[in-house]
Design a protein that fits this description.
InterPro entries: TPR-like_helical_dom_sf. The protein has twelve helices and no strands. By secondary structure, it is an all-alpha fold. Among the domains are: about 1-65, Serine Threonine Protein Phosphatase 5, Tetratricopeptide repeat, CATH 1.25.40; about 70-175, Tetratricopeptide repeat domain (Serine Threonine Protein Phosphatase 5, Tetratricopeptide repeat). The longest helix is centred in the last third of the chain and has 51 residues, at about 195-245. It is globular. The N and C termini lie far apart (about 75 Å).
């Protein structure tokens, strides 16, 4: 299990699909370990498996009370075409629990969700409030490029072109943000996880409970939608009856 996790961590940036395969293999051996759920969630996100990413990252957060991947959770909702759900989740995230860089990532996702919902002015406003002057070059480049997208959506194409001309080379030079811990930290953490059988047993019980809770939430959501459809149909039937009575 630990070996698969090490490979997953090493491959996250270079080959996300291979990282996903290793994370999935680790999951089959040790679904009860929180760092396995974390690795699988990140790999699923990077490979566009947003439903799986959302499930795994949510489970990891509930197992550990760690909100560091909240931006990925929210962005997974966006990936599923649910910007309103992304915004609702973001509104509940305790920002003080996030690192400064994670707060900025969450702001970028917020901007994206508002743009997805058609609120381009608000989407731009979110990005403009980010104090980007002292950020690392790669992260600042991402902020400026998102701002360019928002400007373009509002028809301010010249400003968007200027930002892209300035910041695309920086982004290309600096590369992607490392979403996983350092390799050295990974090795130590994975070894600890593999050797801690007692803790793993307890975590497995928690994970099973959380998976069952998620399944119940999904089932309840389906029931709520069915009840809503039934209520709307009943209301329409009542309206038709009232109209018929008035005509009579």
């Amino acid at each position: 299990m630990a070996r698969h996790l090490v490979y997953a961590g090493m491959m996250m940036d270079e080959n996300p699909e291979l990282a996903y395969d290793h994370a999935k293999a680790a999951y089959r051996h040790a679904a009860r370990v929180d760092i396995v759920r974390e690795a699988l969630g990140i790999a699923a996100y990077l490979t566009g498996r947003y439903s799986e990413a959302l499930r795994e990252l949510r489970t990891y957060r509930r197992m550990t009370d760690d909100y560091s991947h909240a931006p990925l959770e929210a962005d997974s909702e966006r990936g599923l075409g649910k910007p309103e759900k992304a915004l609702a989740f973001i509104a509940e995230v305790p920002l003080k629990r996030l690192s400064p860089s994670a707060q900025i990532e969450l702001a970028l996702v917020t901007s994206g969700a508002r743009a997805d919902a058609g609120d381009f002015d608000s989407a731009l406003s979110v990005v403009e409030k980010i104090k980007s002057e002292n950020l690392e070059p790669e992260l600042r480049a991402r902020v400026e490029l998102v701002k360019a997208d928002r400007l373009e959506a509002l028809g301010r194409t010249d400003e968007a072109k200027e930002l892209r001309a300035e910041w695309l080379p920086v982004y290309d030079r600096e590369g992607e943000v490392d979403l996983f811990a350092s390799e050295e930290d990974d090795d130590e953490a994975f070894a600890d996880s593999a050797d801690s059988a007692a803790s793993a047993d307890e975590a497995e019980d928690d994970a099973d409970d959380l998976d069952e809770s998620d399944a119940q939430d999904d089932e309840q959501g389906d029931l709520d939608e069915a009840e809503l459809d039934e209520a709307e149909a009943t209301a329409e039937a009542d309206d038709e009856t009232d109209e018929a009575n008035r005509d009579a």
